[in-house]
Amino acid sequence: MSKIAYKFDGKDDFSVAEVADDYVLQPNETFDDPGNVLLPVTFANGKIVGATAEAHEAYQATTAVVPDGADTPSAEMQAINALGLQVATLMADKAANTTGGAN
Fold it and tell me: Is a pLDDT exceeding 70 seen at residue 7?
């Protein structure tokens, strides 16, 4: 058999791990399920405690959220990359056609 341990990360979140029945809790760990809690969480009296709605809203405002597609290159960067590829292709073609003599 096994059970679930909840570990506070010491900052603002927690993790969940399946552990053996004879597992001995470490500091900032509990077997008490915190349920659906709001971040940031704290650890008090042996339990993981969620934030209030107000504290959660303030926390959300301070955490960076990367919007979908943020890693997609812009049209300008795509054009620059295409131009660079054309230049590299032309340079390779020129090098292949060079016989070692003066042009």
Answer: yes
Q: Do 33 and 26 form a contact (C-beta atoms < 8 A)? A: no
Check: CB of residue 4 under 8 Å from CB of residue 33: yes
Q: How many CA atoms lie within 13 A of 76 on its CB side?
A: 0
What is the rounded distance in angstroms from the CA atom of residue 40 to the CA atom of residue 34? Answer: 13
- Average pLDDT of the segment spanning 13-36: 95
Kindly give, in sequence order, each residue whose CB lies less than 8 Å from that of residue 59, ignoring residues fewer than 6 positions away. Answer: 12, 39, 40, 51
CA 63 to chain centre: 12
Record the pTM.
0.58
